[in-house]
Amino acid sequence: VKREPVELSDREREAVKKLIERIMASEDPEEVQGAIFQTAREHGIKPKEFFKKLYKILLGRDHGPRLGPYIWDYGKEKVVNILRRSLGQEI
Asked: What distance lies between CA 37 and its chain's CA centroid?
């Protein structure tokens, strides 16, 4: 997957940081899916917009498969590494 850098607002960056924590703590795909919605709402971001940013970061496009199962199947650690890179953090 060709991933271009994705511009994130401060609010979105904080939400991605929190989501990383929640992904690592999750125990199943549905928990990951719920964590995305919860994190978006807690940071004042419309879930649809947050999903769009996550798709851009992870897949290089505006839409894609259901993210909870995708993250679970692809591997939590791999996804977290991609998200950290999107924040400019080293793995």
From this structure: 10
Q: Which domain holds residue 40?
A: 10-86
Q: What is the maximum span of the chain, computed from C-alpha positions, in angstroms?
A: 30
One DSSP character per residue, 68-84 reads HHHHHHH-HHHHHHHHH
pLDDT attached to residue 90: 55
**Domain-located, residue 4:** no
Q: Which residues of the chain have pLDDT under 70?
A: 1-2, 90-91
Look at residue 2 and tell me if it is in a domain: no
How would you class 2 by CB atoms within 10 Å of its CB: exposed for 0-12, middle for 13-18, buried for 19 or more?
Answer: exposed
- Please count the structural domains in the chain: 1
pLDDT of residue 3: 73
